[in-house]
Amino acid sequence: MGKYDFVTAELNALREQGLYNTIRTIGSSVGAWTVVDGHRVLNMCSNNYLGFADDTRLKEAALNAVREYGVGPAAVRSIAGTMTLHNELERRLATFKHTEDAVMFQSGFCANLAAIPALAGKDGVIFTDELNHASIIDGCRLTKATRVIFPHRDVDALAKALDEHAQAPRKLVITDGVFSMDGDLAPLPGIVEAAEAHQALVLVDDAHGEGVLGSHGRGIVDHFGLHGRVDVEVGTLSKAFGVVGGYVAGKREIVEYLRQQGRPFLFSSATTPADVAACIAAVDVLERSDEEQRRLWDNAAWFKARMEELGFDTGASETPITPVMLGEATTAWEFSKRLFQEDVFAQAIAFPTVPRGKARLRVMISAVHSQDDLAFALEKFAKVGRALGVI
Question: Active-site residue 180, yes or no?
Answer without folding.
Answer: yes
